[in-house]
Amino acid sequence: MCVPTPEQLSARAADAVDTHRLIELVQEVCRIPSVLGEEGELAGFLHRVMEESGFEAAGLQPVLPGRPNAIGELSFGSGPRVVLTGHLDTKPVSHGWTATTPFSGELIDGSIYGHGIMDMKAALACQIVAMEALQDSGAELAGTVAMAAVADHMGDQLGSIAYFDSYPADMAVLGELSDNEIFLGHRGRYYFDVTVLGKSAHTCHKPLAVNANALAAHAILELEASRFLPELEDWVRDLFGPETFVVPGRVYGGLPPGGPSMIPDECVIRVDCRPQPGVSVADVRAEVDRCLDRARQRDPRLLAEVVLADVKDGYLAGPDDEVVRHMRDAVRAVRAQPPGPSPAATPPATAPVATTGPAASAPTSAAPSRRAAEPVPQVAGWLGDTASFGAKVPTVIFGPGGEPVYCPDEHLSVADIIEATQVYASFAALALARSGD
Length: 437
Prior knowledge:
The protein is of the alpha/beta class. Helix content is 33%, strand content 21%. The strands form four sheets. A six-stranded mixed sheet has the order 1-2-6-3-7-15, with helices on both faces. A four-stranded antiparallel sheet has the order 10-11-9-12, covered by helices on one side. Helix 6 (212-224) packs across helix 8 (281-298).
């Protein structure tokens, strides 16, 4: 029996992507608001989509009240288990939309508009349609591909934690926005709360007080001036740059407006630190302490308590890890394809041809890629859900959309959406390719 090569399986899966279906699904998800805390409606919609597409074990995994994960999978027999994942939640809507409204999902000049389309509603639709393509391709595969659309990414990442604590995975693709490039990882995030202590008094008794806000100002200036250059492996430094960013991100001092007259005796600085993978909490805490020591040189009265408020680890896959190799091969294969509609994108001869609406105005194939045929691995500065599950599951990051994000008139080109979906389908086919006898 002749076993198809991985390259043939990859091409078959990519060609099976139904681009009409893809465009409509991306538009539909863009029309469902899912700001952090309000993910339930979108989760329910994606659950129904997976159920109607014949996914196995399609369901809503409880995470928080009214905020479940939407999950499903396709089994092709025994073999590795591959998870495609992304988050349901978005940030609040930006002001200033002019091209259309934030939840219109409107197609304008070859791009779909919608709040959160880049982070990361389009990727969720792309992943589901890629799985449908794998199912429709008839490719002989071995293993399982699963979908996990998770809640609470912008909270405590409880959706990802719940999923990967409950379901095994041999490898995963996180669909965070990477501009359709391969991201090996991202920085971590450490929060320190620095509480600066003074002495309170009525405002009219200023000489008796030690204003905690004034003392905190010295600490803020020194924290802002930090240029922390930790010891790093050369390849990590080349990817992320040399500096661990230490930023006084939020300040809480004094009584709220409308309160009584009082000089504050406490001011809290939330220090937002973004370390490269491999930089420890202790390393960054030492830098915060150095900044506070310099602040005391400005004013010896400065007294501060430092508490570690939150830890989210960075993530970094090796450039030669299996999951990265499969993604590199998938990107190469899709970008090597000649432009032109895939079979799944071409309506049957007997089907009515749309003259208006999305199907009439949207391209049905990816245009020649504007990116290099040979992908160059990169990394991100933002925090992904791999902070919570990357240590247990080898993961690569790939998704449509890039910086800046959460701006008015957020949109994605149909060409990039199609390319991302074809890459997801190709990746899954390569990861689940049967080995020859």
